[in-house]
């Protein structure tokens, strides 16, 4: 059995997408896995500093925000219900805890999901084409 690398142009797309998404999740270039993918908190680096891969053409658009809302909502809503039914805390205490939790989880997930989406788009060669069809 041969080891398929992300740089292999003949590798099937299914095998290239997962490693590229994991590298993007870790804020690494989907091509080489060494250079930083994001410059700052959410801005995609124009070019990888290690392999010189053009990263500016892979835009995540609104996908990371939608996925963040979906994940945070699906995690926090049941937890809110369980906490309320089990312990019956004061409403202000419950609100404070879950507001901080929602914000912290959102801030943690947003850049990682953006990296994963950029990695997926890189693996599938989904570039932004500026010319109208």
Question: Can you characterise this structure?
Answer:
- With about 130 residues, the protein is mainly α.
- The chain has one domain (about 15-125).
- The chain is built from three helices and two strands.
- The chain has helices at about 15-25, 65-85, 90-125; strands at about 40, 45.
- The chain has a two-stranded antiparallel ribbon with strand order 1-2.
- Strand 1 (about 40) and strand 2 (about 45) form a beta hairpin.
- Helix 2 (about 65-85) runs antiparallel to helix 3 (about 90-125).
- The chain is elongated.
- The N and C termini lie far apart (about 40 Å).
List the helices and strands and how they pair.
Layout: H1 13-25, E1 38-39, E2 43-44, H2 63-87, H3 91-123
Antiparallel strand pairs: 1-2
Helix pairs in contact: 1-3, 2-3
Oligomer: single chain
Count the DSSP helices: 3
Can you tell me the overall shape?
Answer: elongated
* Nearest-integer average pLDDT: 89
What would the keywords be for this entry?
two-stranded antiparallel sheet; 3 helices; disordered N terminus; 3% strand; 2 strands; mainly alpha; 133 residues; elongated
Summarize the entry for a quick read:
The chain is mostly helical and 133 residues long. The chain is built from 3 helices and 2 strands.
């Amino acid at each position: 059995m041969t080891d398929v690398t992300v740089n292999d142009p003949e590798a099937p797309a299914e095998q290239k997408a997962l490693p590229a998404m994991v590298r993007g999740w870790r804020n690494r270039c989907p091509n080489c896995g060494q250079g930083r993918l994001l410059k700052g908190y959410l801005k995609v680096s124009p070019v990888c500093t290690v392999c010189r891969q053009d990263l500016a053409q892979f835009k995540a658009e609104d996908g990371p925000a939608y996925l963040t809302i979906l994940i945070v909502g699906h995690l926090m809503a049941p937890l809110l219900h369980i906490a309320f039914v089990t312990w019956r805390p004061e409403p202000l205490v419950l609100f404070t805890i879950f507001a901080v939790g929602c914000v912290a989880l959102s801030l943690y997930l947003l850049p990682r999901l953006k990296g994963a989406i950029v990695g997926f788009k890189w693996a599938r060669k989904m570039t932004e084409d500026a010319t109208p069809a």
